[in-house]
Each structure stands twice: as structure tokens, then as C-alpha cells.
Design brief:
Pfam families: ABC_tran, oligo_HPY. By secondary structure, the chain is of the alpha/beta class. It contains 14 helices and eleven strands.
Length: 328
């Protein structure tokens, strides 16, 4: 794998508990690398730590331990350094209606980043170019429009244009198509792929939807309770998932064979992460006796698993999966 553009190294993010409660470990030991021009999908249920990890990679949260590096340099949290960093790494939010000021025109929304960063070039040309790249053509036709005058897909394109205008090297897209109609989702995903091809743009796409990951990502990282539990090339992970949690997530896709796997209960509280495999209390493999037959049931309940490395090789944090590989 080529040298990483953005890396997380043993990243931990904890939030203090209320009224003396234990601290919540939102991110609990994560290694993750994103190479230049690579699209990585970060997948998991709500509450698994995806957004906390993304915010930390953006410099919006400071890690409790571990570090973030960009282009080989540790992230500097001084205000001037963070401002320069956020020009190179841009956030695209899931709800364009919430992220666009209803009182600002499209032109003002896209130009805002240029003004914050003291852009000295031709502002009008830069805004027009960003809108055009985002698929809003001719761009001048959109300059004086307001968000309420646009469709959902057009609003998302404006948000993307607001990120592109600063010519970032990487975008972090948090559920970029979750609020859009199915007919528009494909257009926005195709746009992100086109931008990667034209600009060499890297992307971290945060989603709960493995189907979206299949359509856009080079690599997928599956997150559960603050830690990445399976990672690898998207074709490998989604055609032959090794972790029971990944198998359960895939089973509910419309095209998945067999019956959906219904996980019992909710994910545990991140302030009370269980011992052993953090998924064992909900694991269909352990509950069905397969882990017992493989001789790893006790390990599942008591023995923690190592943090997966951030690189591109296929990896899984699962005692049962490891026993299957050893038996082959």
C-alpha cells in the first residue's frame, strides 16, 4: 500500500460520564489509514463510534490518546495549524438542509470557505468552477438561488461545492446520501467517484449502509463499540465476511441470500464495554453454539482481541474466525 495521506494511530476518544459515571470510550483503540486517491467506507450501527472517529480525524475532537497524522505530519491543534488543516480536509454533512443557511444564496454558501481562509484569487471564478464540478451547470444560474428553491440533490451538490472550492485533498462524507431519494443517491455517489478520478480526491465515507459501501468504496472498515472489527478490500469483506457482526449487517440487505440475522438487544453502553470480544453478548455464532464447537466460546467471553492495523490487508478481530482459519 502507498504511503497514507491520513492515519489514525491507536486512537482513543473518551467522554467523561455524568455525575461520577464511568467515562464513555467512544473510540477505543483505532488504527486507520487512507491512501491518496482512496475511498474508505466506515460502516456500523448508530452509536458505534463512527462519527466520533470522523470528528477526531477532522480535528474537531482531540484524542484522549493516540494521534492523527496527515501527509506524514502529526496533527497540530494550534488554531492557525488547524485552520490550514481544515482547508485540506473538508467535511460533507448528511443533511444539506441543516448545513446550508436558509438566508444565504448558493453563491454566499460556496464562497464562505474562501472568505474564511482569505482567498486572494478571483472569487466568482472559483465559486463557478466548484459548482460546475459538483454538477450544477451553468453555475451562474444558481448563484442567486436560496436553498429552499433547490431540490434535495441540488442542495447536496451545493454542500459538496462548498467543500471543493477550497481544493481539499480529502473529504469526510458523513452519511452523504442518507437524506436523499433513492433516485438521487446514485447521482451523488457517481459524483464522488468522478471527483476522485478528476482531482485525485481521497474520501472517508461514514455510513450504516453496506450497500453504499459496495457501490463507492475501495476498502471498508466495520466498526463496533469503538473499535474496527473487520477491514479489507470491499469485494473481500462484502462477498466473504468473516466477523459475525459484518455477516449480520450484510444479511439485512435486500439482495442477501437466506434469512436476516436479527441481533438481540442494543449495542452495550460505551462506558461499560464488556470483557472478552466486545460483540459476544449479541453474537449469533456464540448463541448458536458454533463458537463452542470450535473450542473458542470461553475466549469469546473473556479474552480481548488486538487492535487491527490500519493498512489494506484483510483482517478480522474474532476468535471464531481465527479458529476457522487455523482449522483450514
Amino acid at each position: 500500500m502507498t504511503e497514507s495521506l491520513l492515519s489514525a494511530d491507536r486512537l482513543q476518544v473518551t467522554f467523561p460520564g455524568r455525575r461520577g459515571a464511568p467515562a464513555a470510550r467512544a473510540v477505543d483503540g483505532v488504527d486507520l489509514d487512507i491512501a491518496p486517491g482512496e475511498i474508505v467506507a466506515l460502516v456500523g450501527e448508530s452509536g458505534c463510534g463512527k462519527t466520533s472517529l470522523a470528528r477526531t480525524l477532522l480535528g474537531l475532537e482531540r484524542p484522549t490518546s493516540g494521534r492523527v497524522t496527515f501527509a506524514g505530519e502529526p496533527l497540530d491543534y494550534a488554531s492557525r495549524a488547524l485552520k490550514a488543516y481544515r482547508k485540506r480536509v473538508q467535511l460533507v454533512l448528511q443533511d444539506p438542509s441543516g448545513s446550508l443557511n436558509p438566508r444565504h444564496t448558493v453563491y454566499e454558501a460556496v464562497a464562505e470557505g474562501l472568505r474564511i481562509h482569505g482567498y486572494a484569487g478571483d472569487e466568482r471564478a472559483a465559486v463557478a468552477d466548484a459548482l460546475s464540478r459538483a454538477g450544477l451547470r451553468p453555475p451562474e444560474r444558481f448563484f442567486l438561488r436560496y436553498p429552499h428553491e433547490l431540490s434535495g440533490g441540488q442542495r447536496q451538490r451545493v454542500v459538496i461545492a462548498g467543500a471543493l472550492v477550497l481544493e481539499p485533498e480529502l473529504i469526510v462524507a458523513d452519511e452523504p446520501v442518507a437524506s436523499l431519494d433513492a433516485s438521487v443517491r446514485g447521482e451523488i455517489l457517481a459524483l464522488i467517484l468522478k471527483l476522485r478520478e478528476e482531482l485525485g480526491l481521497s474520501a472517508l465515507v461514514v455510513t450504516h449502509d453496506l450497500g453504499l459501501a459496495w457501490n463507492i468504496a475501495d476498502r471498508v472498515a466495520v466498526m463496533y463499540l469503538g473499535r474496527i472489527v473487520e477491514t479489507g478490500r470491499v469485494e473481500d469483506v462484502l462477498t466473504s465476511p468473516q466477523h459475525p457482526y459484518t455477516q449480520a449487517l450484510l444479511s439485512v440487505l435486500p439482495e442477501a441470500p437466506g434469512e436476516p440475522v436479527v441481533l438481540t438487544g442494543e449495542a452495550p453502553d460505551p462506558s461499560r464495554i464488556p470483557g472478552g470480544c466486545r460483540f459476544h453478548a449479541r453474537c449469533q455464532i456464540l448463541a448458536g453454539g458454533e463458537a463452542e464447537r470450535a473450542g473458542v466460546a470461553d475466549k469469546c467471553r473473556t479474552e480481548d482481541l488486538p487492535v487491527l492495523s490500519g493498512g489494506g490487508a484483510s483482517q478480522v478481530a474474532c476468535h471464531w474466525a481465527a479458529a476457522r482459519v487455523a482449522a483450514e
